[in-house]
């Protein structure tokens, strides 16, 4: 019993440390369901985050790993991604002074796929008041092709971007999916959620954020 208790305490301590690191960098209010479902990011994109010097800690199963140093402006690091057509976009051009929802996803992540319908519903309801950026992991040629095929066949109309150079995932230290962040017009995070989010929780958080305008 003592051994099991010690193991449990260690796991709780690791989880608490991960949350402390995440909170220190983002300064976020967690959103959504207490039971979060995430999928580990494959080695290709995770390695890119390591090369960028990310030193966050993963929790039980997975959670986002944020930068250890908090920028004085609270702005998230910039990145450049590509539209499925090939046109490149910077984070600044996507935000463009408006509230922006950024979701990190992949077709191989079942939790990501399950919540995409909720993001489409949110886009249809709030797309005229805030920007959306559905950033695909693009961790392999297979995933890039799958993401492009999804855009063509899904019927969803929210903007999809491909992280072909793993720049977005590396700069933000993302190691598990899905992950959702809402930025204000200055590119500062006002809410973050790791794991699958329900449509109800998503809508409530967006309403709360937009209500601050």
UniProtKB/TrEMBL annotation:
Gene Ontology MF annotations: antioxidant activity; oxidoreductase activity
Region annotated Disordered, chain positions: 42-84
InterPro entries: AhpC/TSA, Thioredoxin-like_sf, Thioredoxin_CS, Thioredoxin_domain, Thioredoxin_ResA/DsbE_sf
Biased amino acid composition, Polar residues: 73-83
Skewed-composition ranges (Basic and acidic residues): 63-72
Database matches in Pfam families: AhpC-TSA
Protein name according to UniProt: TlpA family protein disulfide reductase
UniProt organism field: Berryella wangjianweii
């Amino acid at each position: 019993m003592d051994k099991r208790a010690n193991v449990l305490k260690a796991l709780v301590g690791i989880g608490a440390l991960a949350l402390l690191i995440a909170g220190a960098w983002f300064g976020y209010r967690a959103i959504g369901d207490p039971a979060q479902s995430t999928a580990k990011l494959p080695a290709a994109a995770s390695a890119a985050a390591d090369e960028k010097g990310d030193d966050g800690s993963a929790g039980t199963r997975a959670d986002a790993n944020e930068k250890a140093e908090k920028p004085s402006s609270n702005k998230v690091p910039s990145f450049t991604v590509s539209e499925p057509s090939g046109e490149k976009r910077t984070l600044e051009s996507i935000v463009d002074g408006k509230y922006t929802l950024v979701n990190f996803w992949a077709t191989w992540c079942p939790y990501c796929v399950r919540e995409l319908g909720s993001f489409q519903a949110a886009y249809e309801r709030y797309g005229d008041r805030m920007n959306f950026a559905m950033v695909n992991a693009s961790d392999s040629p297979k995933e890039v092709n799958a993401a492009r095929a999804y855009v063509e066949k899904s019927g969803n109309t929210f903007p999809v971007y491909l992280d072909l150079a793993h720049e977005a995932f590396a700069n933000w230290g993302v190691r598990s999916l899905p992950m959702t962040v809402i930025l204000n017009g200055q590119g500062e995070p006002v809410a973050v959620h790791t794991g699958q989010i329900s449509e109800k929780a998503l809508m409530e958080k967006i309403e709360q954020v937009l209500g601050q305008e």
